[in-house]
Design brief:
This protein is of the alpha/beta class and 336 residues long. It has a single domain, classed as Rossmann fold (3-Layer(aba) Sandwich). The protein has twelve helices and eight strands. α1 crosses α6. The N terminus is likely disordered.
């Protein structure tokens, strides 16, 4: 005789429907909350207290902050769901007293154009060239430039294409150096697929999904991964991330990012093509970026490497040590 199951454990149709219906109910609830309660038209304040210019070049309307006088220094932020020039704020404030500093909002972020278009390494690199054009018109001098995380790939690409415009390049916790990563694809190829971004952009779930990524708890969580801990998160950056990620069109560039369309499948070729002095400064506690294989650049005479026991945004956590090391690099490169 087959023993009977306790009635409380029987997989009845009603109970199964309730269990499997939970995700659907939760999804519908969040979609309704997203539509009715989440703001999508906030106006963030400027990320930096500086002159703002809108350039209209290859990349369409892009915003650049400008301050100070002296030799030009270009700063470029990273790419994430809430990226903006605020990410380079400590460096902007540090160097505006001695340099002519430019801080770019990459296409799809900050006060740059956020329309629904193809966000690619080419578009981002063209934005860098647009700022270089502006600097050339203003001073005609070659540029020291620094970029963070994935922004470093765009800066490196621009420097490989126009080395004559650069005195030096600094890459802070930039991408493409993970263990067992080899990116020697065709020139201009990426690591993503357009179909992935199209799936994210489905009007049924695009905005609710992005609102989940850009919710206050999610922003704090991802910043904690970037900084290496919750305690290290810069509260000013966290406060700015919410309004800058809740403006019209905010989701389009981040969807290209999470779909892999902004990562160069050829980036090892690009790094190895650099002829200007390059400083790679990286935080060892960033939980998104792996520096397990630096073999293709660590012995190149124009490359200098400095690890820091910090998260990705080294200069937020160790500003004095970082700027001392950067200044030493600039002096050694003849760019100080």
């Amino acid at each position: 005789m087959t023993p009977s199951r306790p009635s409380g454990l029987r997989p009845t149709p009603g109970r199964a429907a309730w269990v499997f219906g939970l995700p659907l109910v939760a999804g519908l609830g969040w979609t309704l909350f997203s539509r009715l309660r989440v703001p999508h038209d906030l106006t963030p304040p400027p990320a930096l207290d500086a002159e703002r210019r809108t350039l209209n070049g290859r990349a369409g309307p892009v915003n650049v902050y400008v301050a100070g006088s002296g030799a030009p220094l270009l700063l470029i932020h990273s790419v994430n769901a809430a990226a903006s020039a605020y990410e380079v704020r400590p460096l902007f404030e540090q160097y505006r007293t001695s340099r002519r500093v430019y801080a770019l909002d990459l296409p799809g972020f900050g006060f740059s154009d956020r329309s629904d278009r193809d966000y690619t390494p080419r578009l981002m690199t063209d934005a860098v060239h647009d700022v270089l054009d502006e600097i050339a018109l203003e001073s005609g001098e070659s540029v020291d430039a620094l970029a963070v995380s994935l922004g470093g790939e765009f800066l490196a690409r621009a420097a490989a294409e126009r080395p004559d415009r650069f005195r030096s390049v600094a890459l802070v916790t930039t991408t493409g150096f993970g263990r067992n990563e080899q990116f020697y694809g065709g020139l201009g190829s990426t690591r993503g697929r357009p179909g992935i971004k199209r799936a994210y952009e489905n009007p049924l779930w695009a905005q609710p999904f992005y609102d989940l990524l850009a919710s206050a708890p999610s922003l704090r969580f991802f910043l904690a991964q970037t900084f290496g801990s919750y305690a290290a998160v810069d509260e000013g950056l966290l406060r700015y991330d919410y309004p800058t990620s809740h403006v019209p069109g905010a989701r389009h560039a981040p969807f290209a990012f999470i779909g892999g369309l902004l990562f160069g499948a050829d980036i090892d070729r690009v790094y190895e093509a650099l002829t200007v002095p390059v400083w790679l400064a990286y935080g060892t506690r960033d939980r998104f970026t792996d520096f397990g294989d630096l073999s293709n650049v660590e012995r190149r005479p124009n490359w200098s490497l400095t690890p820091f026991d910090t998260g990705a945004l080294v200069y937020f956590e160790e500003p004095a040590r970082f700027t001392a090391a950067y200044d030493a690099f600039l002096a050694g490169a003849g760019a100080g």
